[in-house]
């Protein structure tokens, strides 16, 4: 219990200390016009309040990651707490803040455009394809997972197929309509439901004195799977997730002032870390250790664990509302995954999105592909999502490091976590069944060599970019601030 409480306090402290440092390092310009005003179009670019942007950002980035991931990560024992806390403060929140703020400085640019500017033109095309693949996978996964949860919640009274169709219908509307019509109106309500559910579960764990284990570095996984690199790809959204880099530009286009960035981008990642801590602690303490949790996962998957946690801590009635809060998470990330994919493609092919016809031209093929992917086993999709997700995070952190390097600022805050995740993801791909299937020891060695080479390449590219005085931001000096 002490480890759990201290971890929560560290996350909060991280926001007020390291978060403040990152904000000061970046250098907020309150007088600078933001894309919400400079590019205002009433569809994707329009100013919204800090509170509304914060809740939308939280729901955009959360998905099932801060719940399903920590539940699976709980199999490794309390060492998972360390990754959530330190990963969130020093990697995930830095990743989200830099991505959001650099996007604001570049008229709401998405990751492919930022990668092209700061990492080279070839990377723009690579990251564009990679980001769209990731977003389609996310959108598809976040159709099947909430559909399954709703189907179980209603005891199978409504067919899984009908629920899936209904979720797709909602996704289509949220992807096509102006951001303030559905997302801006309903996300604050959904956000409140999510926060109440998570706070309720966390509070009851403390009140009921749940036997949350204290910190130990012993691997408790029943199948003795290696902590590194698997834990770092199992718990993503609660610590570091590249998916967030595809979502933050959505809100960079609706942020009123740069000074709001720490609350919206860094702060909401901290909030997600707290949610992850709650569900990891619950999974570790309520099912008689890793063995009991593993048996429950084998019998009913993470959805069953969520339902059992909610019922045990909050009771049948209130627990049902908590499960609804969990269901909201993937739905409110799935819709923005498709919306983000539409925006990225539109930017890439330079197709304005003011007309519904233009939006349909991009959105329809995306949904056709996603519907086809729903026929593939969820577990297979999740395996590819895991490494694609963290690889995207590596790219975003390297973009942040390049920006800070050119600006002659402390770029290590982004490069160190970026290099760490580069090594983690490389080792995973080399060892995994969906990768090169090398032995773990060989993967560690080869992964280290590949990562070191790529870091050297980064430094050489950074030196050239600094010497060429690559512009860090788009000039908006001709625009008057309307805020």
Q: How would you describe the overall organization of this protein?
A:
By secondary structure, this protein is mainly α. It has a single domain, classed as Amino acid/polyamine transporter I (Up-down Bundle), CATH 1.20.1740.10. The chain is 74% helix and 0% strand.
* Helix-strand string: HHHHHHHHHHHHHHHHHHH
Individual helix count: 19
How many distinct folded domains? 1
Low-confidence runs of at least 5 consecutive residues = 478-483
Average pLDDT score: 89
CATH overall fold name: Amino acid/polyamine transporter I
> Share of helix among residues?
over 70%
Structural class: mainly alpha
CATH classification, class level: Mainly Alpha
Cα-based radius of gyration, to the nearest Å: 21 Å
Distance between the termini: 46 Å
Q: Please give the CATH architecture.
A: Up-down Bundle
CATH superfamily: Amino acid/polyamine transporter I
Strand content: under 5%
Major sheet attributes: none
Shape: globular
Q: What is the multimeric organization of the chains shown?
A: single chain
- The number of strands is 0
Protein name: Carbon starvation protein A
Membrane topology: Multi-pass membrane protein
Keywords: Cell membrane, Membrane, Transmembrane, Transmembrane helix
Subcellular location: Cell membrane
